[in-house]
Design goal:
Blueprint lengths: L1 E5 L8 H17 L6 H11 L3 H5 L6 H4 L7 H22 L1 H22 L11 H14 L4 E8 L2 E8 H17 L8 H21 L3 H7 L30
Antiparallel strand pairs: 1-2, 2-3
Helix pairs in contact: 1-5, 5-6, 5-7, 6-7, 6-9, 7-8, 7-9, 8-9
Length: about 250
């Protein structure tokens, strides 16, 4: 299941979210040519990605920031940017532009530190914005637990968009990260970065949520966004369906 959009329109233009999307895409394009050379690509990731062993030795602290703008492939980039696109605008509206940028980067740093603590001797570089974006998800869950999110469900040739409350989407996603992080896994996914970023997002957003009213905010809005939710409908096409002609040779 893939998130396509939420029913939670933002009242302000999310300039920082747009800038983060553009920065990640442009930086990826700038080193895309290195994917043709595994040695050069690994050297690049070792320099700018977060390497736990180097961090433990007291080096490369800047990679706690730089790793957030690197990705290991087109799909890695695409999924991260999709999540940022769906959830980032509302958190930017809550925080304000500059404070949202600080929140996003701080969640990414927390995610990198969580991954470091999970395997401090590792020489495998960690790259990706998913830890920072996980923090956005954590903050979103705190503010809008019952906002509806349209999820694309696909099973082989079956496709359908299903609206699901955010607490189920994001809570389920976090549960899967914890399950994978605690179990044996060698798929190369930095699950503890996701966990650390998500928890950091909740913790960092908690003071703002309390200033907004805390549980009284949930009581007032019943966990929904404090404004009318967007309504989407699917319009049937006017193009007639093509009929099937029976083959006279088949009985």
């Amino acid at each position: 299941m893939i998130p396509m959009r939420d029913h939670n329109p933002s009242g302000k233009r999310p300039y920082v979210t747009y800038a983060l999307l553009a920065a990640n895409i442009l930086i990826f394009i700038s080193y895309y040519g290195l994917f043709a050379n595994d040695t050069a690509l690994m050297r690049f990731f070792m320099t700018w990605g977060m390497v736990p062993a180097a961090l433990g030795a007291g080096f490369s602290f800047e990679t706690l920031l730089t790793h957030q703008f690197l990705h290991g492939g087109i799909l890695h980039l695409a999924f991260n940017m999709l999540f940022l696109w769906v959830y980032g605008d509302n958190m930017e509206e809550e925080w304000g532009h500059l404070r949202f940028l600080g929140f996003y980067l701080a969640c990414g740093v927390a995610a990198g530190l969580a991954q470091y603590l999970s395997e401090p001797q590792s020489y495998i570089p960690m790259v990706g914005a998913s830890g920072a974006i996980a923090g956005v998800l954590g903050g979103y869950l705190l503010f809008y637990p019952r906002a509806r999110v349209d999820m694309l469900l696909f099973l082989l040739v079956y496709f359908r968009i299903i609206p699901i409350p955010a607490w189920l989407v994001l809570g389920g996603w976090f549960g899967m990260q914890v399950f994978a992080g605690l179990g044996p896994s060698d798929d190369g996914v930095a699950y503890w970065a996701h966990i650390g970023g998500f928890v950091a997002g909740v913790v960092f957003a908690l003071p703002l949520w309390l200033r907004r009213g805390g549980r009284a905010l949930w009581t007032r809005t019943h966990g929904h966004p404090p404004h009318p939710e967007a309504q989407y409908r699917f319009v049937r096409t006017d193009i007639p369906a093509a009929g099937r002609r029976r083959n006279p040779w088949l009985r």
